[in-house]
Specification:
19 strands; alpha/beta; about 450 residues; 8-stranded parallel beta sheet; 7-stranded mixed beta sheet; Urease, subunit C, domain 1; 14 helices
């Protein structure tokens, strides 16, 4: 990758280079050569003289399956609990094919937005659908994937929010979670597939399942994830059913630490932020979804100050309603400025760091998230000659990616292989996937 216009490495010093080149060997960054360094012999060369290059972006919270239920009437202008109750019946009609196609759509959108690694939190598995279906698709598309064996066990008849027909038996959940970990989890550096244990939320699983899940995860050496402190309705539910706020509930159940991360964390007090930081608990900041559902603004500045691990998440495609991580970077920055009332509360580079190095830390990885020798060959590039960056990249190519909202990455490399070239997916029939997604979405609506 020769003579890049700009390389933003997002190493610890946030080093940025002009005219430099990145030398890849197989699936690893072997060297980054300054401008003027002797040319290396390579099997293939990509001219990056008109590109700004970043580490591949890292998405820490998503619901791939929701790409088939975007903008559904009855969900567009309501809060989370009403939104969920409208969508649960539709999600209960998903099939293995629906899971596969929705995964294709989500990964395609993520790749085109410069994202090379994502977790997914699917917690509903109807009609024979399995996490295996998602893993197969991610492997076919060459995408680095943290797949969660999500779950719901607390149906409406027992005081939960979801209908009884979309929840599972807890013994079955734990048994299948063990199977998925043993079958697919790869703990080695540069792994393309890792497994996450992910019961859904305080209002859809029991405390017993939370305890058993975190115990299983720790015995297997995998990380754990759930929703927490997303809305005031959730807070009221926890106070009514458990006599404490969501963060305290998580602490009582053992759901804090450097092997745990929570989605949202909108309603955490200043003192709770300090406690979360002290345990190095991770947070997936989902600005667009929180705005869309009117949930509030997460206290990201306080969480970062307290030393919590913080990354970005696009959240579900039915509450965003997109899977564009580069767009999420902009929203994350702007919302923190609104919350703090000052324009430098979160800079463009701060927000990009959340989407790169920060996301890697949240997922528990030290092999992605920055461009440095020995790290994964996961790279995203944007042309400085695009319409969106015109009049901007000449001043600050890196910041322009956040302020100017480029629609697509021009180049995306995952694990050393091109997955996006000239703004188009490589070796993937996107239109066929879109057509099938629309067909399934229409059947779900009927």
């Amino acid at each position: 990758m020769k003579n890049a216009h700009t390389i933003a490495t997002f190493d610890r010093e946030r080093s940025e280079l002009r005219g430099a080149s990145i030398f890849l060997r197989d699936n690893v960054v072997e060297a980054i050569d300054d401008a003027g360094a002797p040319a290396r012999t390579a099997d293939a060369t990509i001219d990056c003289s008109r590109m700004v290059l970043l580490p591949g972006l890292v998405n820490t919270h998503h619901h791939f399956y929701q790409t088939l239920t975007r903008s559904v009437p009855g969900t567009q202008d309501v809060k989370l609990f009403d939104w969920l109750q409208t969508l649960y019946p539709m999600w209960g009609r998903f099939t293995p094919e629906a899971i596969r196609v929705s995964t294709q759509i989500a990964i395609a959108e993520l790749l085109l937005s410069g994202c090379t690694t994502s977790m997914d939190h699917t917690y509903i598995w109807p009609n024979g659908a399995r996490v295996d279906d998602q893993i197969e698709v991610a492997r076919e598309m060459g995408f680095r994937f943290h797949a969660s064996r999500g779950s719901m066990s607390l149906g409406r008849s027992k005081g939960g929010l979801p209908p009884d027909d979309v929840v599972e038996d807890e013994a079955d959940i734990l048994k299948d979670t063990q199977r998925v970990i043993e079958t697919y989890h790869d703990p080695k550096p540069l792994a393309m597939t890792r497994i996450v244990v992910a019961p859904c939320s305080p209002f859809s699983v029991t405390p017993d399942l939370m305890r058993e899940s975190i115990a299983l995860a720790r015995s297997a050496g995998v990380h754990s994830h759930t929703h927490l402190a997303e809305t005031l309705d959730e807070e009221n539910y926890c106070l009514e059913h458990f006599g404490c706020r969501p963060v305290e509930l998580a602490e009582k159940l053992g759901w804090v630490g450097n092997d745990v991360w929570h989605a949202h964390m909108v309603h955490a007090s200043a003192e709770e932020c300090v406690r979360l930081g002290a345990t190095r608990t991770g947070i997936a900041y989902c600005a667009s979804s929180n705005m869309r559902l009117g949930s509030g603004i997460a206290p990201i500045l306080a969480l970062r100050s307290a030393n919590a691990r913080v990354g970005l998440g696009v959240d579900g495609s039915a509450s965003n309603d997109s899977s564009s991580l580069i767009d999420e970077v902009r929203h994350a920055m702007l919302l923190q400025r609104v919350s703090a009332g000052i324009p430098d509360a979160l800079t463009a580079r701060d927000s990009l760091e959340l989407a790169t190095r920060g996301g890697a830390e949240v997922l528990g990885r030290d092999d992605i998230g920055s461009l440095e020798p020995g790290k994964a060959a996961d790279i995203a590039g944007w042309s400085v000659d695009s319409l969106e960056l015109s009049g901007a990249a000449v001043h600050d190519a890196v910041a322009s990616l956040v302020f100017c909202r480029p629609q697509r990455a021009d180049l995306v490399i995952v694990n050393g292989k091109e997955r996006v070239r000239n703004g188009e997916l490589v070796n993937f029939d996107l239109q066929a996937a879109v057509n099938k997604a629309n067909q399934i979405a229409a059947s779900l609506a009927r």
